Amino acid sequence: MLVEQPLISIYLPCHNYGRYLKRAIESVLRQTYENFELLIFDENSKDNTAEIINLFKGDSRIRVFKTEGLGLIKVANIAIREAKGKYLIRLDADDIFNDDILLVLVQRMINNPELAFVFPDYYLIDEYDEIIALEKREKVYAKNNSLDIPAHGACTLFKLDALKEVGGYKTEFKAQDGYYIWNKILSKYKCDNVNLPLFYYRRHEVNLTNQPDRILTARRAIKLNEIKDDIVRNRPINIVIPCREDYDFVKNLWNLELGGKKLLEHSIENCINSDLWDNIIVACDNEEVLEITDNYDDNRIKFFKRDKRDTIRSIDITKTLDKIARIYDKEYKGVTVISYVQSPFVKKETLEEAVYTNLIVDSDSAFTVEEIKSEVYRRGSHGLVSINPPQFITSDYEVLFKDANSAFSSKTSNFKKGTLYGSKVANYFTIEEESIFIDSEKNYKIAKSFVR
Question: What share of the chain in percent tops pLDDT 70?
Answer without folding.
Answer: 95
